[in-house]
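On clarity, I found the account of how folds are encoded harder to follow than it need be. What matters is that the chain and its backbone geometry are given together, residue for residue. The format is easy to grasp once an entry is in front of the reader. For illustration, here is how one protein appears when written out as sequence plus structure tokens.
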Amino acid sequence: MIKNKPIYILGIESSCDDTSAAVICNGKILSNVVANQEIHTKYGGVVPELASRAHQQNIVPVIQQAIQQANIDKKDLNAIAFTRGPGLMGSLLVGTSFAKSLSLALDIPLIAVNHMQGHVLAHFIEEENQQIPPFPFICLTISGGHTQIVKITNHFNMEVLGETLDDAVGEAFDKSAKILGLPYPGGPLIDKYAQLGNPKAFKFTKPRVNDLNFSFSGLKTGILYFIQKKVKENSNFIQENLNDICASIQHTIVEILFEKLKKTVQQTGIKHIAIAGGVSANSEIRKVLKGTEEKFGWKTYIPKFEYTTDNAAMIAIVGYLKYLENNFSEESTSATARLKVSEN
């Protein structure tokens, strides 16, 4: 039986501004190394050209560290899994090229991974006290670039039931933070200040969107006009009300997400609900999701913090699941900036 012998997969993630490598053995993570790129902070967002250069500098030491921490030799590896897309093209190319070279040098299979599937399937990493969702389940995938409600029928059968028509929820958090003069990335700062504020202090209009889709651009504009008006009346408005403003913004965004989730459960009858992606690290989203277990009888699945933001552990688990199915990639496989969650 294949499961009895150790299968070591190296995962490589380079879709945006974090260079990451991880080693997994039969579903258990042995190492997960992430090198963050501080350089983007002063630009208020990710600069693609700088991101790909930083990946080139980071990729060798990060992979070396991951293999060392896993306490194995690179000759023990059974396959190399890498992020094929979606993401920034320059960044993806660094990881893709390196993965191809390494798989050729070690003469082991190459496994291309969809970054968005990685976020969802991070729930299948074997961890103590971590429950794995049964099929079918619903996953709310929320990040800087994506906001989607996905129905997961099996590991590689995913259907988007609803998604954002414009901006992603992570962008709404970051842009709102920018309006308030907070440094990039501002999403975690809104979460931090929101915990000290009154979520009902200010009311923002929620966009009306049909079906299970989302829209955040109108909300963002509404927040901008509200702040401009208030600052005109009182130049210290932001400083005097920062906690309440952040709490009100966060409350509105979380309400938008959960109204759609409730609608999804009503339509599908599926009550196993997971969250994934960088924004799922938000404390209010986690708290409200946990509360739905008692309130609506849902069963919820929340990943560990380190598996929410971009990391290679999630790429490695997808690589392992594909390895079990002999689902390997050709050396001719190319990186792609756009890739739907349903595409393998």
The chain has a mean pLDDT of 93. The chain has two domains: 2-124+307-324, 137-303. The first strand starts at residue 8 and ends at 13.
